[in-house]
Amino acid sequence: MAFIKQTAPQVVNEDERTASRDFDGLCAELNNENQTARRWAARDLVQFSQASAPLVARLKIEAHPNVRTAILDTLAQIGDEQAITGIVECLRSDEASLRNEAIEVLKNIPEQVAPIIDSLLNDSDSDVRIFAVNILESLHHEDVEKWLIQVIEQDEHVNVCATAVDLLSEVGTELSLNALEHLKIRFADEPYICFSVELALKRIGQGDR
Amino acid sequence: MKNILVIDDAATVRMYHCNILIEAGYHTEEAINGIEALEKALTTHFDLYIVDINMPKMDGYGFLKEVRSQKDINQVPAIMVSTESASNDQVLAYSAGANLYLVKPVRPNDLLSYTRLLLGEGA
Amino acid sequence: MSDITISEDDFAKFREFFYRKTGIQFDNSKRYFVDKRLVERIEETDSKTFRGYFVKLRFESSGDELQKLVNLMTVNETYFFREEYQFKCLVNSILPAITKAKTDNSPIRIWSVPSSSGEEPYSIAIYLLEYWRDIENYDVEIISSDIDTQIISQAQKGHYSPRSVQNLPDKILTKYFNYKNGGYQICEDLRQAVEFTRVNIMNPLEVRSYRNIDVIFCRNLLIYFDDISRRQAAEVFFDAMKTGGFVCLGHSESMSRISSLFKVQKFPEAIVYQKPVEDR
Hints:
The complex is a heterotrimer of chains A (209), B (123) and C (280).
Chain A (H helix, E strand, L loop, with lengths): L22 H7 L5 H10 L7 H10 L3 H14 L2 H9 L6 H12 L2 H12 L4 H13 L5 H11 L3 H14 L5 H10 L4 H18 L1
Helix pairs in contact in A: 2-4, 3-4, 3-5, 4-5, 4-6, 6-8, 7-8, 8-10, 9-10, 10-12, 11-12
Chain B lengths: L2 E5 L3 H13 L3 E5 L2 H10 L4 E5 L7 H10 L8 E5 L4 H10 L3 E4 L4 H11 L5
Parallel strand pairs in B: 1-2, 1-3, 3-4, 4-5
Chain C lengths: L7 H15 L8 H14 L5 H10 L4 H10 L10 H18 L6 E5 L6 H13 L8 E7 L2 H9 L1 E2 L9 H7 E4 L2 E4 L1 H6 E5 L5 H4 L5 E6 L8 H14 E9 L13 E4 L4 E4 L6
């Protein structure tokens, strides 16, 4: 039989963990040319509360998606103001994959994100406002519906409203009914809005019976 | 019956696109992001992909790049659909392998005429 | 009899949410099956209505209720040769790809997690012996881990009910098992072939020593995890694997709900996920 059992423990042989694991050593490793080394450094920096600045700096120039994911995860875990600002900046990136990674990460830290939702929902960039609504989807926060109603009552951009209606059809209550009816009038010539509002009204209405 | 894969992370958008296509006589399937779409594309035959750009895990560009690199499915046409009207996104969409580009919210007639065009059914 | 009803729109709302979270899609033919289980949970949680329950399910940050529901909606039973197409994929496609790319004579390492009561790692061992023609040419290490020490000692004992072995061809049953105390005892050679370990895959320190793995079987585990834990587990696997190695998930699971670290790889028998080769 050719089955064997491990005779010696696996050596963590890769060069990526040979560098010093103190704060300065890890910051230096963030610029290592080996992407695995950078990813490990980004992960190990989670134990240092002062790591947000070097991580955000690296995030701005990092090209490898796996390293970026690790940096975003670590920033989310540190969760201080600088870290959150760094993640939010990614929403403005030209790269779709980075924007979407940032949204995913922000969805998982409701306490840190809730205080900035208002400002994101009022951002001048309509795409950022859409992403803010995307973040609301997974936010376990009592104001989610209130924010969504505010969006469909006030936002002028059809796609921001459309994104909010999609979510309201899942989380909306009778509190949303008026705003939804108004939205349908406001965008009466948009077939998609009419479709999605009808769907949301139906889903919410049924729940009341 | 022509089979179309509708890829979007928003359930309402998928339903809207599918309803339009089904009423016009097409068969549709749905995927929630690029990875799921790729899994379906590799195991089921589709005649057309309708792809959103911003989605979690794998976005529309990533999906199209993968599709265009897989020999069994690289010829399947794709319409990219996005909220972004910036010209840069159109450029990126075409370089990722999209055949046509539509800006959300999509109008039923536009979706159908693009679909027919790419399926070679005339406008 | 319960007077809780699930309307068509409630069902649609639930179906979309559950699909987004798990990748499992229920069509209308499953309506009765789904409704029955939803009503069961609504009663159990004293939610009174679907709406009340859905709010709890959706906004509960621990994710415990979703986990309970996934449990009810999926068949979580382990037996020999369960989802056999993946073992076929292992011997016909995955291992040939790995041996082809191999540049040294280090052993091929297969990690089966969770071990549960041992049916999966032993199935892998049997499959390799019976159906992989290169078994004589390579050393293979099968490691199987679980968080639960009790289930590990059960796996090490290797005594199974007739139900658990009912999918096995007679030839295999007589070759590798002995009938004993109303059940089937797996043979000593196979018990020695699998290395059982206790590990919590969510603890980075405990998984540090799991490295250079070629194939990971992690079936029907991550579907019960919340979003963050899934991502973390995928990272753990990624780090434990050799580049070019493969991950096999359960048939109702998809990487599309877990992580973007891996590449989708289609083999004739199954879709699996590969740690990209260019990643170094």
